[in-house]
Amino acid sequence: MDDPTATVLALLGLAGLAAGFVDAVVGGGGLIQLPALLLGMPSAPPVQILATNKVAAISGTTVSAATYYRRIRPDPRTFLPLMLFAFAGSAAGAAVASQIPRSAFEPIVLVALVVVGAYVLLKPELGEQTALRFSGHRHLVAAMGTGLAIGFYDGALGPGTGSFFVITLVGLMGYSFLEASAKAKLANWATNLAAILVFAPQGAIVWKVALVMAVCNIVGGYLGARTAVARGARFVRVFFIVVVSAFIVRIGGDVFGLWT
């Protein structure tokens, strides 16, 4: 691929900042970073795009996960199995990522976002407070299944992973949006790490771009996590709906050729 110019690097850094903030609040920062990388690195193969995005993403996720952990103190009986199985699923997904054509990214993500956005919008009481739907063994199985399935998606494709973790923890398991965001950050950190461990030996990471976006993602992640904790679950829900709606319009326009 061609070496990115200073202007391209600056714009990618700005995308990383915005992605870090959005990802820390509701997840889905990859839906900002990945399109930016596709535009900024037009000659790069999909595996390089995914790998470079992961390095930037894990940087911001580390900061936001630490911020959530200090302030929310999520239950380790949920987030530890969630992280473990998310790690395993992501490693498996990353191993097959190079087999997925670039054209398959956006239609898959668009369908998932429409389903998720409609579900949250039509259930206004969803995620206002924690009301767990499972206990004991069933809760553990739900956490492990969530981690494995979404982890595989993150390793193979990636965009929207944090949002999918949040909505599954809220809709399936009964957590509030704020608690779900805290656990989603920890799980997303594990999926990013697993994917990097698979991608790095392949030489797929474009380090010059990755490091610029990583620094910006850290700043965005810190600001986003502090904002979410201060504003509470209601703010996170509203922000979630706004962000998902924007993603649907943006990606839907690409899929149906409205922006060409």
Name the features.
260 residues; globular; mainly alpha; 10 helices
Structure, described:
There is one protein chain. The chain is an all-alpha fold and 260 residues long. It has one domain (6-255). The protein has helices spanning 6-26, 30-40, 46-72, 76-95, 105-122, 136-156, 161-171, 177-199, 207-231, 233-255. It starts with 5 loop residues before the first helix and ends in a 5-residue tail after the last helix. 55% of the residues are buried. It is a multi-pass membrane protein. This is Probable membrane transporter protein. The chain crosses the membrane at residues 48-67, 79-98, 104-122, 159-178, 190-223, 235-259. InterPro entries: TM_pro_TauE-like, TSUP.
Q: What is the total domain count? A: 1
Oligomeric nature of the chains: single chain
Order of helices and strands: HHHHHHHHHH
End-to-end CA span? 24 Å
Largest sheet: none
Q: What's the total helix number?
A: 10
Task: Please tell me how large the radius of gyration is.
Answer: 17 Å
Strand share of the residues?
under 5%
Question: Overall mean pLDDT score?
Answer: 87
Choose one word for the global shape: globular
Number of strands: 0
Work out the helicity level: over 70%
Strand-pairing-aware structural class: mainly alpha
